[in-house]
Amino acid sequence: MKPGVHTSTITKADKTDLDVRKQMSEIFAEGFTQWLGYFSKDELIIAKAFAHMFVLDQFYVAIINDKVAGIAACTDGKTSSVRLNKKELREHLGSLREAWQGFF
């Protein structure tokens, strides 16, 4: 590819050969860590904690040069675009009890 030439596409997250989940979670963390700072102020920890939640067939990703540049959920209102797993959250963020102990 020539310098300055970019390839871009928008596709469903479950239809690309790229491993988009990690990149999607990094974008999510960049946008939401300010509100999830109660659990951690570290964007990497937030990204790891929430990477599992994306229901990929409910998301579109904008890809520029094989890197996810943006994400958008698009549902029918009946199917959720995220599915939280308590075990995954606990693994990365600890329990709510531990969080409260650190708070006080």
Describe the structure.
The chain has 104 residues and is an alpha+beta fold. It has one domain. Helices cover 39% and strands 17% of the residues. A hairpin with a 2-residue loop joins strand 2 and strand 3. The longest helix is centred in the first third of the chain and has 17 residues.
Radius of gyration (CA) equals 16 Å
Largest sheet: 3 strands, antiparallel
Given as residue ranges, the uncertain stretches (5+ residues, pLDDT < 50) are none
pLDDT average, as an integer? 88
Number of domains: 1
Determine the fraction of residues in helical runs and give it as a percent range: 25-40%
User: What is the count of helical runs?
Assistant: 4
Shape by Cα distribution: globular
Tell me the distance between the termini.
54 Å
Percent range for β-strand residues:
15-25%
> Helix/strand/pairing class, anyone?
alpha+beta
SSE arrangement, N to C: EHHEEHH
Number of strands: 3
Could you give the order of strands across the largest sheet? 1-2-3
Short overview:
With 104 residues, the chain is α+β, with helices and mostly antiparallel strands.
Q: What are the defining features of this structure?
A:
104 residues; alpha+beta; three-stranded antiparallel sheet; 17% strand; globular
